[in-house]
C-alpha cells in the first residue's frame, strides 16, 4: 500500500534517486564507515527506508537532506553492529605506548604532528588524504568513536548511549585514537614537509 | 612525578569530560614547564578546529576525491529497490 502511495505521488523513483544522490550518499557513508561494503549497505538501507517513508515525506525541503538524515541513522546502526561483533578488550594492552613514551613517560621524540606552515595549510587535500589513511589504520572501534566525537561532534554521553560503552572505556579509546593518529600524521605530513 | 604520558592522557580527556581541579592544576603546571607537551597541545587545538571545517565540507561535498558508487553496487541497489516497488 505504501508503494502505491509513493507511486501515486509521482515523485519517488529509485533510478532517479540513485542517479542524483547515489554518489553523494555513498561518499558520505564511506567517509564515516571507511568500508565500501558497509557504505554500500548503508546506502541501500537508506533508499529502502526512504521508499517506505516516502508516503510520509512532505516533499518540502531538499530531498537530499532528507535522505542524508536517514543515512546518518543507518550509519550509526552499522557502526553499532560491527562493534558489537568485536570483543571488548581485543585492543587492550599498552605496549604500543612504548613506541611513543620512554620508561619514564617522556616523549621519545618531538610530538609535533602538523607542519608549521601558513594557517590555510590544513585545508590542503593531502592533509585530509593522510588523515583518512591514518584513520583507516586505527582499530575499528577507536576510529568509530573518534569519528563520532570529532567529525559529528557528539558528546561523550551520546556516544556511550549509542554504542553501549562506559564513559571510562570511551575516554581510553579516544585517547589511544588521538595519540596514534598524531603519530601516523606526523610520519605522513613530515614527508610532505621535507619535500 | 607527573609525566608527559599522563599529561597527554589528561589533555585528551579534557576534551571529553570535565577534569577535576587537581587534574587541571597538574596539567596546567606540566604544560608550563614542558615544551613538547605544549606543542602537542597546540597542534591538537589547531587540528580539532580543522577537523570541524573538514566535517562541514564533507556535509556538502563528501567526495573531494571524486569517489563514486561502483557500477556493480549501483546495480545491486537498484535490484533491491525494484524488488520493493514491484
Provide the succession of SSEs of chain A: HHHHHHHH
Mean pLDDT of chain B: 89
What would you call the structural class of chain A?
mainly alpha
Instruction: List SSEs of chain B in N-to-C order.
Output: HHHH
Give the chain pair forming the largest contact, with residue counts.
A-B, 58 and 47 residues
Instruction: Provide a count of the helices of chain B.
Output: 4
Straight-line N-to-C gap of chain A: 62 Å
What is the count of β-strands of chain B? 0
Structural class based on helices, strands and sheet pairing of chain B: mainly alpha
Low-confidence stretches of chain B: none
The tally of helices of chain A reads: 8
Profile the largest sheet of chain A.
none
- Which spans of chain A of ≥5 residues are poorly predicted at pLDDT below 50? 1-10, 191-195
Report the β-strand fraction of chain A as a percent range. under 5%
User: Averaging pLDDT over every residue of chain A, what do you get?
Assistant: 83
Whole-angstrom Rg of chain A: 21 Å
Computed Rg of chain B: 23 Å
Annotation, overall tally of beta strands of chain A: 0
Oligomer: heterodimer
Percentage beta strand of chain B:
under 5%
